[in-house]
Design a protein that fits this description.
mainly alpha; Endonuclease III, domain 1; 219 residues; 2 domains
């Protein structure tokens, strides 16, 4: 159970009012969300969209078809998402995981969150952010997705990270304990952090004076 924190939920409400609903994840199917989460590693979403569009044009937004395609051709198709050769192998690893469940995504979704997370993290090339994105956005599991934007915003607004080696889990648990345990809120809050990071809380030359939450912190 989590303990509701009004200050942090105020941040959520202000961001939602400022940016509006983000309608994440932008995809037509659960499978598209799953591969999009992997392709999004280390790259912005516009590049991911280009890669997915290439796959769609080749009628390859299907796990069985993707599994059969030559790795070099797959790498060429997903080239806009950067690191194509690495991601092609990771994508095949992920599809092989789906094959263990006969590509039945409903069957996978019925697994408990913790169990499914452990299984995803065993897939070569799937880290915590990718696994949690799949859990939240594809399978509607109650897990808060953390990324570099979350960390940057958190620290710039008074948050203190105790563990430099395990900051991801620390931040995930921090938010899960302090906001309503709701898939829609988890979904929207993460998307709003990404928008805030892109628009105001940039790595270089942040627009702190214009930030919609400039007077709020995570204490």
């Amino acid at each position: 159970m989590n303990s509701f924190n009004s200050n942090i939920f105020d941040i959520f409400k202000i961001l939602l009012k400022h940016f509006g609903p983000q309608y994440w994840w932008p995809a037509k199917t659960k499978f598209e969300i799953i591969i999009g989460a992997l392709l999004a590693q280390g790259v912005n979403w516009k590049n991911v969209e280009k890669a997915i569009l290439n796959l769609e044009r080749e009628d390859l937004l299907n796990p069985q078809k993707l599994l059969k395609i030559d790795d070099k051709k797959l790498a060429q198709l997903i080239k806009p998402s950067r690191y194509p050769s690495i991601k092609a192998k990771r994508l095949k690893n992920l599809i092989l995981f789906l094959k263990e469940f006969e590509f039945n995504l409903e069957k996978i979704e019925r697994l408990e969150t913790i169990e499914l997370r452990k299984l995803l993290l065993k897939v070569n090339g799937i880290g915590k952010e990718t696994a949690d994105s799949i859990l939240l956005y594809a399978f509607n599991k109650k897990i808060f997705v953390v990324d570099a934007y979350t960390k940057r915003i958190f620290e710039r607004h008074g948050g203190k990270i105790k563990s430099r080696n395990n900051w991801y889990e620390e931040l995930r648990i921090f938010f899960e304990k302090r906001i309503p345990e709701n898939v829609n809120i988890y979904n929207e809050f993460h998307a709003l952090f990404v928008q805030l990071g892109n628009s105001y809380c940039k790595t270089k030359n942040p627009l702190c004076k214009k930030c919609p939450i400039k007077n709020l912190n995570f204490l």
